[in-house]
């Protein structure tokens, strides 16, 4: 193996980025990803992201393996990192750039802004149980504020897909949540046949939310972009937040808008190169 990589992070959600423009399949296996993501015996990361050739008229394709080797449909912090990585590969990192990226969740459009932040058109949220995927309610129904039994307690949850599944629960105090012990129970709950990401949310103000996350396939992370988008959608549906809100995560803040006009979700946040290396 002789592969160059660049490590990026978006709010501390960190990824190994690989230039995979030469072939249509990832040049590393899910098993490789598990080894490389290991924080003691590997490079250390929440996932490995591949920049592949575009499909169906898009500029690039993004594929990602979680740190457990599973393949999610989308990654919000990851796609901001990918935009910066592409700008670097194309030698345009000092300019603004906009890319159409094919993902397993559809086409996403990240745009690098003059201040270096990246805004991503994340598409429309999917709300029906059959799309999410959850058996918590009937396939043609939305799961909004539904009771779910986890760790001996009944939680009111709202389920949203941003291409990948999210289970959101509003709590009084996010700091008091014992994520280490309950996160995995949500992830593997039988009502989520493809497992789930879980977000715990404290509403500070309707335009300011505090979030902690347990990610499917990665456990506790410092931030989750698709999660922050799903949270604002859930907050609007449950009448707990505005359509434009700041979501504060342990790694920093994201600005999320669920636009009334086109019903699409827009996410703005940072993405930074950390170092380059060779495997
Ligand atoms: N951290 C990501 C989400 C990565 C995928 C997730 N773990 C899943 O399996 O769905 C983000 O920023 O969106």
From TrEMBL:
| Record's keyword annotation contains Chloroplast | no
Protein location: Cytoplasm
Which residues are marked as site: Could be important to modulate the pK values of the two catalytic cysteine residues? 166, 215
Broadest EC class assigned to this enzyme:
isomerase
Q: In which pathway does it act?
A: Amino-acid biosynthesis; L-lysine biosynthesis via DAP pathway; DL-2,6-diaminopimelate from LL-2,6-diaminopimelate: step 1/1
The active site lies at 75, 75 (proton donor), 224 (proton acceptor)
**What's the chief localization of this chain?**
cytoplasm
Tell me which EC number(s) this protein carries.
Answer: 5.1.1.7
Q: Which reaction does it catalyse?
A: (2S,6S)-2,6-diaminopimelate = meso-2,6-diaminopimelate
Q: Where, by residue number, does substrate bind?
A: 13, 66, 76-77, 164, 197, 215-216, 225-226
* UniProt KW keywords: Amino-acid biosynthesis, Cytoplasm, Isomerase, Lysine biosynthesis
Please indicate which superkingdom the organism of origin belongs to.
Answer: Bacteria
* Any one GO MF annotation of this record: diaminopimelate epimerase activity
Q: Identify one Pfam family in the record.
A: DAP_epimerase
Per the record's keyword annotation, is Acyltransferase included, yes or no?
Answer: no
HAMAP family of this UniProt entry? DAP_epimerase (MF_00197)
Q: Quaternary form?
A: Homodimer.
Write out the function statement from the record.
Catalyzes the stereoinversion of LL-2,6-diaminopimelate (L,L-DAP) to meso-diaminopimelate (meso-DAP), a precursor of L-lysine and an essential component of the bacterial peptidoglycan.
Which protein family is named in the record?
Belongs to the diaminopimelate epimerase family.
What is this protein identified as?
A: Diaminopimelate epimerase
């Amino acid at each position: 193996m002789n592969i160059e990589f660049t490590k990026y992070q978006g709010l501390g959600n960190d990824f190994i980025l690989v230039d995979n423009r030469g072939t249509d399949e990832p040049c590393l296996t899910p098993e490789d990803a598990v080894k490389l993501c290991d924080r003691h015996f590997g490079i250390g990361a929440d996932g490995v992201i591949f920049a592949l050739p575009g499909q169906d008229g898009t500029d690039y394709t993004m594929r990602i393996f979680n740190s457990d080797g599973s393949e999610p449909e989308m990654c919000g912090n990851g796609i901001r990192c990918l935009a910066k990585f592409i700008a670097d590969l194309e030698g345009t990192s000092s300019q603004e750039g906009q890319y159409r990226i094919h993902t397993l969740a559809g086409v996403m459009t990240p745009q690098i802004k003059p201040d270096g932040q990246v805004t991503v058109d994340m598409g429309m949220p999917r709300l029906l149980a059959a799309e999410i995927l959850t058996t918590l309610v009937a396939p043609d129904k939305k799961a909004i504020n539904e009771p779910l039994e986890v760790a001996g307690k009944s939680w009111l949850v709202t389920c949203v897909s941003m291409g990948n599944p999210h289970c959101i629960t509003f709590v009084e105090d996010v700091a008091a949540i014992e994520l280490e012990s309950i996160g995995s129970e949500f992830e593997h709950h039988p009502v989520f046949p493809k497992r789930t990401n879980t977000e715990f949310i404290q509403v500070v103000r309707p335009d300011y939310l505090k979030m902690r996350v347990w990610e499917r396939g990665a456990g506790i992370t410092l931030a989750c972009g698709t999660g922050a988008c799903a949270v604002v959608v859930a907050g609007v549906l449950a009448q707990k937040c505005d359509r434009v809100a700041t979501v504060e995560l342990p790694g920093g803040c994201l600005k999320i808008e669920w636009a009334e006009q086109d019903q699409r979700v827009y996410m703005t946040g940072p993405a930074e190169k950390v170092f380059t290396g060779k495997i």
